[in-house]
Amino acid sequence: MTTVDRLAPAHYEPVHVPHEVRRHAGRPEALPVGRPGKIGLLELGFDRVGGRTELVSRYQKSPLQIMRPLYFDPARPDLAVTFLMSTGGGIVQADRLRLDVRCGADSAVHLTTQAATKVHRMDADYATQQVHLTAADGSFVEYLPEPTIPYRDSRFYQRTVITAATSATVLTGETVLAGRLARGERNAYQVFAADLEWRRPDDRLFALDTVRLEPGGSGVTGPAVLAGHDLMSTFYAVSPLAPAAEIADTLHRALADGGLPYGVSVLPEDCGAWLRVLASDPPAVAEALHRAWDAVRRLLIGAPAPALRKC
Question: Among 1, 119, 188, 278, which is disulfide-ready with 152 (CB 3.0 to 4.6 Å)?
Fold first, then answer.
């Protein structure tokens, strides 16, 4: 049995931090890396027990925690809907957060956050968040967090590694805002960097999505970046339950009449499809992503997307 030292830097520090973020490394005068409350850990294990999926293991270290799983999807009463939460009110400098989620064979899990993730202003160092999600054979897993809002002068790196068995279905999405739009704050953060890695159980990488937004560097408002918009959203559907081209067509149809600029393509090895959409109106992009999620769900499992009440 291997014992993991959860408080060792090798566990909570990303293997690689992009240069755009790493160059801000420093030691804050108050609460540097490793002090109480700066290392947030959450480890969850789900297995199918009887007729539904149960949370069978949990370890949490503040500020990360969860609500107990709920079962309110009328079309999938076996689905364990789990809200990820933070007691910290947002991510601040020198935070190191790590989530490890294991979804066992034939389990059904929906993971989401209760509210947007706010990345606060920083004057020393940076913050990181790692998400390691494993979907075993026959599992159905949804990881759909609320948007991330990088505040003025924030520096943030997020690494998400999804390890999916070839018979597993994983739906995930992410939205990034240009800042606190209601305050007129746009692209005032120093750097937002994210890597989404898709791997197979043998650790083989089969898809990678890299985002680097550095307004003070090469700029973020031009073509091939945000193109003058305030939100960027991505939705992935990896599944063997339908041909990749059919999943892509479904995403196309879901957004065709929405009036937003978007693009859809199939993923390598025909394992699914992905969508990227730009917008400047948060409700419009939320509604577009919900349409995409709902359409893909109906295609793959014959069930609509449930309504989730959040504050």
Answer: 188
